[in-house]
Design brief:
The chain has helices spanning 14-24, 44-59, 104-121, 156-159, 164-173, 192-201, 203-215, 234-237, and strands at 5-9, 33-37, 64-67, 75-76, 82-83, 88-91, 97-99, 129-132, 151-154, 223-226. By secondary structure, the protein is α/β, with parallel strands linked by helices. The protein has a single domain, classed as 3-Layer(aba) Sandwich (Rossmann fold), CATH 3.40.50. Strand 6 (88-91) and strand 7 (97-99) form a beta hairpin. The longest helix has 18 residues, at 104-121. The radius of gyration is 21 Å and the shape is globular. The chain starts with a strand and ends in a 26-residue tail after the last helix.
């Protein structure tokens, strides 16, 4: 029987980075490849982390491969202005609300990874690939069975009951850097805190998110599209104290010399 190809889906977030490091240090079974499907839209911190730690993984025997989808456009003009992300919609006639079907994950992540796998294994056969997924125990509801016979998904963090907080604890105990949360800068699945952090940090990440939000606005007949569930332009949807003249508090602002504040 031919051996199973064991690969890790590496998004460079906390969970998948933990699994990559565990494989590198021999705490989980070996992986033949750690595959990063680069959407080209990740936050800058993710790219910085990948650049810093890819050499470390490879020095420890984990081969990192980066793959790309055929096109990274958020709006596909050749598909009747199809919007790839799961944007929030408002019907201009009725005011009813909905959501665009998500296509980005399939086109930017799943398809390029599977294309690479087929170049490695050649002719597909049932169970030819074990795909190690970085879903932690507190996210077990995200577990899915592969929809193709040649890939079997596995979830080591769930099997070992390791949560995201447990991943952070493990990384700290091994003196490894904690990465930022991975995800496209304009992802409609961002929570309130993530949007606020993005706006507060400013720079190219926030600017790109604002640009994408504006670019998708009128790409569907009779609808307006938004990246934020409030269904208003992104700069208005995200409210932070700095918008009202406040500034972010620093440690110098804290009248405390007891040695226990913010520990």
């Amino acid at each position: 029987m031919q051996p199973v190809l064991r690969v890790l889906s590496l998004g460079w977030g906390v969970q998948s980075w933990t699994l990559a490091a565990m494989a590198a240090l021999g705490e989980i079974p070996w992986v033949d490849y750690a595959i990063h499907a680069d959407t080209t839209h990740e936050v800058s911190g993710t790219y910085a982390h990948a650049e810093k730690w890819t050499p470390w993984l490879e020095e420890h025997g984990v081969k990192v491969v980066t793959v790309y989808g055929r096109r990274a456009d958020v709006v596909r003009e050749d598909w009747s202005n199809s919007v790839m992300i799961p944007a929030f919609t408002t019907d201009l006639e009725t005011g009813s609300r909905g959501k665009v079907k998500r296509q980005c994950t399939d086109d930017w992540k799943i398809a390029p990874i599977r294309k690479f796998l087929r170049t490695v294994i050649g002719k597909t056969r049932p169970g030819a690939v074990e795909m190690v997924m970085g879903i932690s125990f507190d996210e077990w509801v995200r577990m899915r069975t592969s929809n193709v016979a040649y890939i079997t998904n596995s979830y080591p963090l769930v099997n070992h009951r390791i949560t995201r907080a447990g991943c952070i604890s493990w990384l700290n105990s091994h003196h490894l850097e904690i990465p930022v949360k991975s995800g496209c800068v304009f992802c409609p699945y961002h929570g309130i805190a993530a949007w606020q952090r993005l706006k507060r940090a400013g720079g190219s990440n926030w600017e790109t998110a604002v640009e994408v939000d504006a670019a998708i606005r009128d790409k569907r007949p009779k609808y307006q599209l938004f990246v934020h569930p409030a269904r208003v332009p992104l700069p208005q949807a995200i409210d932070i104290p700095e918008d009202h003249g406040a500034r972010q508090m620093s440690l110098e602002d804290v009248p405390c010399d007891g040695g226990v504040c913010f520990v």
